[in-house]
Amino acid sequence: MREAPAETPVERQENPQLLAVIEELGESHGPQPLSTLDDRDQPRRQTGIEEFDRVLGGGVVGGSVILVGGDPGIGKSTLLLQILNQLSRPESPTLYVSGEESPYQSKIRSLRMGIENHHLYFLAAAEIDNIIGHFRKLKPSALVIDSIQTCHCPEIKSPPGSTNQIRQAASHLVKIAKLTRTPIFIIGHVTKDGSIAGPKLLEHMVDTVLYFESDTQYPYRILRAVKNRFGSTNEIGVFEMTGSGLIGVDSPSRIFLNERQVNLAGSLVSATIEGSRPILTELQALVSTAISGGIPRRTTLGIDRNRAALMIAIMEKRLRLNFNNKDIFLNLVGGLKVVEPALDLALIAAVLSSHLDQPVPPTTLVIGEVGLTGETRRINMIDQRVAEAMKFGFKKIILPDGNPTSSPARNRTVIHEIATISELAAALFS
What we know:
- By secondary structure, the chain is α/β, with parallel strands linked by helices.
- Helices cover 28% and strands 24% of the residues.
- The protein has 2 domains: 43-250, 3-Layer(aba) Sandwich (Rossmann fold), CATH 3.40.50.300; 255-429, 2-Layer Sandwich (Ribosomal Protein S5, domain 2).
- The protein contains 12 helices and 20 strands.
């Protein structure tokens, strides 16, 4: 079978509608001395969805291009439809462009979500010149493209979804955003490995890249920024999927601990930091006998697999435990994914609890990083973690030796400091 010819490089061809916008607005200024440039903060528009504004760094910046990715059905279109509904005003309409849904499908979805807005416009289109033409006429205050993989430029002969088409369509949209100071939200499909489908250049072209982390099996959705030119990439937004759309969760700790069962071996709570706020999360471990002759399994959900393997190796070396014939399964409940080392000590404690088949008291919380020699290491933002733990009724907190905390909560709880993991069992079960 003859192989399909490789895509040829894109020839320099300007879109006529884009040229018309450039002619109307004019090109950007020429070179200017750096000292004369405007250094005032970019004005932001609040979307009315606090969790989304938190991820963006305080709201939407005019002229920014925001790429939103995630698995099918996770809520990308739903969230952006809600955002346009919040941003639309009589004097500043918004435009939702879909190359995947018909007007009837979008109307049914908006009715289900309770959205009846005369200033939110819908356009079923895929050709980029058609989209820009309607953009020129309507002059919306915000634009959503659903999705970039369906857009195509007439001047490019490649099929929609190809590398050339995605690159050229994104280039036109970015230029429109910068010329008109209009925020543009672009939905991107993801591949099997979870990355945005298409050229990696797409993520470099836009200002912000947001990913939904959770899968559709959980009612909660976690939105994280992996790139943000106008804010931090440390914050996350937590949403709950309901029949009327995505609702922001004010207290993530509450939802992650909502269904926790107490007095079960292998289960305990730790505190992680996402951006500026602490989040309590349940960590579960299951240690079971491996199949005779088989290779012991190490399975993790929400926890870095290499980090987990490292902690298990430290336990074997420093605590004289043998896991060669044990399968070990680790799960961070609720769909949250954590990579910070502050959960090391909690991971070891959960594995130890399951291995000994001895429950950890339900009001005990464990925090701390662990080094290769089994020593505990200090963690940052300890006061915020301790205060959050106290708010949810934890009476005993195990943390690294010498990790200073000035939290008022310290006077109302037992702070148990340990120097090495050899002291952990006594601190957990005493």
